[in-house]
Amino acid sequence: MVTFIEIMDGPNEGSRFKVEEGLTLGRSKADIIIKDGKVSSTHAQFAVDGKGQFVLQDLESSNGIHINGRRVKKVALLPGVIFELGRTQFKVVTVEEELALDFSRLITWRSILQDRLGGLEAPKKSTPITLQSFSPALRLQFIQGIQTDEEIILGYGPRKAGADCLDIELLDDEAPKEAFELHSGPGMVEIKIKAPGRVTLNNKSVDAEMLKDGDLISVGNTLIKVTYI
């Protein structure tokens, strides 16, 4: 039998991860990334105990591992066991060896959307989008918030960012559906803020402005540093 953990709720509900000794779970600096603001950067690690049983060990995380509301240092990964990291609930499942290859999966809202749209006919007409070159290219570095340590390099536009964007997805709980757009300008990139007040540039509320090296875009608890490369 092969052991997996499956996410039971939240935006990645249904995702399954194979349990392997030494793999870590965390918000950013881990082998398995859990998009949960209450999960530490490196939160827990799979290990094997003296009886040869898989366990999940807490790595001195801020919020620990919980079972039935009780905080524990480690949890035995037995079939049917339910535990929580941060606000994310997991269940331990096992499958036969021959089924394991196709059992792992990562569910995102993008994949859900693709599945739901898969049977729909493509529209007969679409409005063409004229691509704009970003020269120099733009780097977005997430330096604070749930996406800390993520980095996006953008070489063309226009680009859209927000909680409901297929382009630049913002995972912050306070991120608006449409946060901002990025458009090409003369030697720079222009930001057009779609949710004034909820999105700021250098702690100021603006509608549109040319981005400069070192500018900081704030969305909820997320802070994004802008640099040209």
UniProtKB/TrEMBL annotation:
Q: Which SMART domains match?
A: FHA
The record, for InterPro entries, names:
FHA_dom, SMAD_FHA_dom_sf
The record ties this protein, via Pfam families, to: FHA
Which residue intervals define the domain FHA in the entry? 23-72
Taxonomy, superkingdom: Bacteria
Listed name of the protein: FHA domain-containing protein
